[in-house]
């Protein structure tokens, strides 16, 4: 799991993060798709000023499968799946309630993954 920012989390907030990751994994399993290989979570959307946040106004965890080119997102209450090419992610953020700063960080992680010769090619990079 990659983090948008470094932040220590309480056990309760860590459990919520694990719950969100499991929710995404269940979606992947139900679709019989490839597991996401790039994960990003914003700890600040799980706990702020010592207060555990059960859900957020926008996605707080993103996962991307470079093999299937599918974005998974959850806000703690809802999860969604969107087939999307990496070069279309910014447009997706602009047209939906996905934070552009999270998408930009996800894109940098996808780019880092694409530079690894042992990782699948993501095209367009």
Notes on the protein architecture:
- The chain is α+β, with helices and mostly antiparallel strands and 125 residues long.
- It is 34% helix and 20% strand.
- It is globular, with a radius of gyration of 14 Å.
- The chain has one domain (2-112).
- Strands 1-2-5-6-7 form a 5-stranded mixed beta sheet, sandwiched between helices. A two-stranded antiparallel ribbon has the order 3-4.
- The protein has helices at 11-31, 89-95, 100-114; strands at residues 2-3, 38-41, 47-48, 51-52, 61-65, 70-74, 79-83.
- The longest helix has 21 residues, at 11-31.
Keywords:
125 residues, alpha+beta, 5-stranded mixed β-sheet, two-stranded antiparallel ribbon, disordered C terminus
Question: Layout of helices and strands, plus pairs?
Answer:
Elements: E1 2-3, H1 11-31, E2 38-41, E3 47-48, E4 51-52, E5 61-65, E6 70-74, E7 79-83, H2 89-95, H3 100-114
Parallel strand pairs: 1-2
Antiparallel strand pairs: 2-5, 3-4, 5-6, 6-7
Radius of gyration: 14 Å
Assess the beta-strand content as a share of residues: 15-25%
> Low-confidence parts lasting 5 or more residues at pLDDT below 50?
116-125
Total number of distinct structural domains: 1
- Overall structural class, as computed from helix and strand content, comes to alpha+beta
Please count the helical segments. Answer: 3
Average pLDDT taken over every residue: 88
| Oligomerization category of the chains in this entry | single chain
């Amino acid at each position: 799991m990659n983090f948008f920012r470094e932040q220590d989390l309480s056990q309760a907030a860590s459990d919520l993060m694990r719950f969100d990751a499991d929710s995404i994994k269940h979606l992947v399993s139900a679709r019989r798709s490839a597991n996401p290989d790039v994960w990003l979570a914003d700890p600040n959307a799980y706990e702020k000023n010592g207060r555990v946040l059960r859900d957020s106004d926008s996605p707080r965890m993103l996962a991307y499968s470079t093999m299937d080119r599918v974005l998974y997102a959850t806000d703690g209450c809802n999860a969604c799946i969107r087939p999307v090419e990496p070069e279309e992610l910014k447009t997706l953020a602009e047209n939906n309630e996905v934070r552009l700063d999270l998408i930009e960080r996800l894109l940098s992680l996808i780019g880092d993954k694409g530079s690894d010769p042992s990782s699948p090619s993501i095209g367009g990079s």
